[in-house]
Structure formats: structure tokens, C-alpha cells
Design a protein that fits this description.
With 472 residues, the chain is mainly α. It is 77% helix and 0% strand. It has 17 helices and no strands.
């Protein structure tokens, strides 16, 4: 239990100290943001800071800090270290930088930013990669809440029924101006999400459950290696490339650059708190990682969430907690499709003030999403997790290039270059090892991942030194 409390403290201190350092490196000023300068009434719409924070939290949360944290907890309490330090040093920096850089480029997507700072080839690759990731994200975030809702409602309202209902909602939320649906109901959902996390924490303490203390021992029942599997599995709870597709959306809504640390860095820290809660809840409720792993295999992620919620809080409290869990993926799924619409609009140059143009992009997107819901959730999740972390890698390199070009103190770009290198090693090593990848041995995958990251870091150092010598 001490480890859980200390982890919460480190996240809080990280927000205060490292968040301020990140803000200082970026140097926000008083220039007009897209919400003020453009204010198109559809996507660039001013929001109050507290509302922008809650909307950003709901956008990025999804089932990642819940399902990902539960699967990550199978490695044992070592997962607490990745959630905490991954978020403070990587995830929150990633979200802040992508949001703020986007704000300075009229709210452009991560794909367009990649073109500006990494070259036109990167832009085209990232356009395709981002849309594919967002389709996977939206699909994952249809299946999981539908499965939970089916458990809470009569048998006649099965999973398929709820998939259809959620997809209809996605059409509405993707099409209408951001302040009409998302801006109005997300703050309420955000409060529900926070209450859900607090309820599980209370359930752990009141119920007398034991949360194991941090150790470096790998306790995974299937003996999956911590490196790189844990770093991919947890995904959104520590660092997530999906957030790079969401931060630009809220970058269009903040009214001052000085709000960025609260909105972007702060929302990621809040999401990590949720991940800690569910990782702790998983091992505490089932007692061992083997029992947790068995439950995930037999009941699925939704079933485990249902059992933990009702087991710790009773039926009424459990249902309220589950509502919070349902809210997470739905409110990330709709913004995933919305972000995909915006990326495709940038790509095709279709003006999104026109409802007709929004429909032209939205309907095919959701049609593909509906087809993908028929695939196995676990397979979708694995591809989502890898593509998610690979996008985080690219986004951090975009931020690094930005800092090299714009910051007088070139050394400050290490703030993003170090986590970018780390995620480069994680992403390549995983896809070389994984069943859905190349299935190579660790003797090949590990050195390849390390060499790949080292080469990118050397390239970064050369470019940084050149810019520093040129005084640019």
C-alpha cells in the first residue's frame, strides 16, 4: 500500500516540478491561439480552462488506463514504476508538446506537423498511420463499452445492439460542432470518471485489500518478458501516441498558451492516476497475478472490470463505477473518429464548415469501424497498442525537431529526445518479438531495438550540434 501512496505523490510532484520544466522549455507566450484567431464555430471554439482539461482527459482516457493497466498489472507491482515515470518523463511531456506545437500551427494534426519538422515523406506516412490508428482506436472503444453495457441490461439488449447505438452516437458527435455535444456533456462525464477512480481507491482501503509493494520481479503468469511487453501493454496509462491525435483537437480550443500545462500535462497525469488505481485494484482484488491473468483469459477485460467494481463496491456502487468505465472508451472513440475526420480533411482540403463535406468523410470512416468490430478484440488491442506506442515515438521526434529549430538552448531538446529514443527501442523490439510481428528471438530483437534507438539518438546529436554551431 505504501508503494501506491508514494506513486500518487510522485505523480503530483512530477506535475508541479517536471511540468514546470517542460513549460519553461517550450516557453508559452501571449500570442493568439486558434480558438481566438480562427474561431470557426465548428472545430476551433474557445473553451474555459477547466472544461478543456476535462474534455482532454475524456478524449485521451479510453479503456487504456483501465484495460491496459489491468493487463500490465499481470507483470506485478513493477508496473507502478512504468506508469509513474513513464507519465512524468514521457507521456505528459509528449501530450504537452504535441498540443502546444499544434496550437502554434493553427491546430494542425500530428501528421501535418510531421511533414513540417520531419519532411514530406514522414507526413504521408503519418497521415496513413494516424488514420489507421484512429480507426483501430475507435473500434476498440466501441467493443469494450458495448460488452459492459450488455452485462448491465436485459439479454435482449446484447452487445450488437449497443455497438449500433454507440456508432450512431459517434456519427452525431463526429459531425456537430465541438461545443454542442462534446463541450457540454464531457465535463459531466469527466466528473463521473474521477468519482469512479476515487470509488475504487476507497474500495481498496475500506475493503481491507492488500496492494503489493513495488519490486523488480517479473510476476507475469505466462512469463512474458517485461521488456518490451509491459511498456506496450500499459499504453495509455504511461505514454500514448493516440494522445498526439487528440491534443491538437483541444489545441484548437484553449484561449491562452499559458493554459497548456494544466490542460495537456495535467490531463495525462490524471489519466496515470486512473491507471494506478486499476492496476492496484486488479492485483488487490484477485490476490495474485496468476489469478488476475486467469480472470482476464476467462472473463475478458470487461468481465474483470465488472467483477472488481461489484466485488469492491457492491452492486449499486459497482454499477456507478462501471458507468465511469463505459464513459471512458465512448468519449475517446467519438473523438478518435473526429480526429480522423480532421486529418482526412487536411489531406483532401475539404472545408469542414460544410455539413456535406463532414458527412463525405465521416460515413465511410464509421462504416469501416463497424466492419472492424467483428474482429477479435484481443488481436485489435495488440495492434492498437503497438501502433499507439510507435506513434508516440514519432511524435516525440517531431517535438525534438521543433525544439532544435526554435529553442535557443539546443540542449533542452533532450527533454523529448531521451523518451523518443526509449520509445524507439520499445516499438522496434516489440514488433520483432511479438506473435503479431516477426516472431524473432530475443537474441536478435533486443540488439536490433537498442541499435535502432542508438542510431536515431546519434542522428539527433549531430543535428542538434549543427544547429547549435550555426546559431539557428
Amino acid at each position: 500500500m505504501i508503494s501506491l501512496i508514494l506513486s500518487m505523490v510522485v505523480l503530483t510532484v512530477g506535475y508541479i516540478i517536471y511540468g514546470r520544466l517542460t513549460e519553461k522549455v517550450f516557453s508559452p507566450d501571449d500570442r493568439e491561439t486558434p480558438a481566438v484567431r480562427i474561431n470557426d464555430g465548428v472545430d476551433c471554439v474557445p473553451m474555459k480552462t477547466w472544461k478543456a482539461f476535462l474534455v482532454q482527459l475524456l478524449n485521451i482516457a479510453g479503456t487504456g488506463p483501465i484495460f491496459g493497466a489491468l493487463m500490465g498489472a499481470c507483470f506485478g507491482p513493477i508496473v507502478f514504476l512504468w506508469i509513474v515515470f513513464g507519465a512524468v518523463l514521457g507521456g505528459a511531456v509528449h501530450d504537452y508538446m504535441t498540443g502546444m506545437i499544434s496550437s502554434r500551427h493553427d491546430g494542425k494534426s500530428i501528421a501535418e506537423l510531421s511533414g513540417i519538422y520531419l519532411g514530406s515523406a514522414a507526413k504521408w506516412i503519418m497521415r496513413v498511420f494516424s488514420v489507421v490508428l484512429l480507426l483501430l482506436t475507435g473500434t476498440v472503444f466501441v467493443n469494450s463499452p458495448a460488452a459492459l453495457l450488455a452485462r448491465l441490461t436485459p439479454n435482449m439488449l446484447g452487445t450488437t445492439f449497443w455497438i449500433v447505438v454507440i456508432l450512431i452516437y459517434y456519427i452525431i458527435a463526429t459531425l456537430v460542432p465541438i461545443d454542442k455535444v462534446i463541450g457540454k456533456i464531457y465535463p459531466v462525464f469527466g466528473i463521473i470518471l474521477i468519482i469512479m477512480a476515487v470509488s475504487i481507491i476507497v474500495g481498496i482501503f475500506v475493503g481491507g485489500y492488500t496492494v503489493p509493494e513495488i519490486s523488480l520481479k517479473n510476476l507475469h503468469p505466462d512469463e512474458l518478458p517485461v521488456w518490451p511487453f509491459m511498456f506496450i501493454t500499459v499504453a495509455c496509462g504511461a505514454i500514448s501516441g493516440f494522445h498526439a491525435t487528440q491534443s491538437p483537437m483541444i489545441a484548437k480550443c484553449i484561449t491562452s498558451e499559458r493554459e497548456g500545462r494544466k490542460v495537456f500535462y495535467g490531463a495525462m497525469i490524471a489519466e496515470s492516476v486512473i491507471a494506478l488505481v486499476w492496476a492496484a485494484g486488479g492485483v488487490a482484488f484477485y490476490g495474485t497475478t496468476h489469478l488476475l491473468g486467469d480472470a482476464l483469459s476467462k472473463l475478458g477485460q470487461s468481465g474483470v472490470v465488472y467483477d472488481i467494481s461489484t466485488g469492491m463496491l457492491g452492486m449499486v456502487g459497482g454499477v456507478l463505477a462501471i458507468v465511469g468505465v463505459v464513459v471512458c472508451p465512448i468519449t475517446s472513440g467519438d473523438t478518435a473518429f473526429r480526429s480522423a475526420r480532421l486529418i482526412l480533411a487536411e489531406w483532401t482540403k475539404l472545408d469542414q464548415k460544410s455539413i456535406k463535406n463532414r458527412l463525405i468523410i465521416t460515413i465511410p470512416l464509421l462504416g469501416i469501424g463497424a466492419l472492424l468490430t467483428q474482429l477479435d478484440f484481443n488481436v485489435l488491442w495488440r495492434y492498437f497498442s503497438w501502433s499507439n506506442q510507435t506513434l508516440a515515438m514519432v511524435s516525440l521526434w517531431v517535438a525534438t525537431s521543433y525544439l532544435i529549430r526554435t529553442n535557443k538552448n539546443k540542449i533542452s531538446s533532450l527533454l523529448t529526445a531521451i523518451p523518443a529514443s526509449f520509445m524507439s527501442a520499445v516499438s522496434l523490439t516489440y514488433i520483432l518479438l511479438a506473435d503479431e510481428g516477426f516472431r524473432l528471438s530475443t537474441t536478435i530483437a533486443y540488439p536490433c531495438g537498442i541499435v535502432f534507438a542508438a542510431v536515431l539518438f546519434v542522428i539527433y546529436l549531430v543535428l542538434m550540434i549543427r544547429h547549435r554551431s550555426a546559431g539557428k
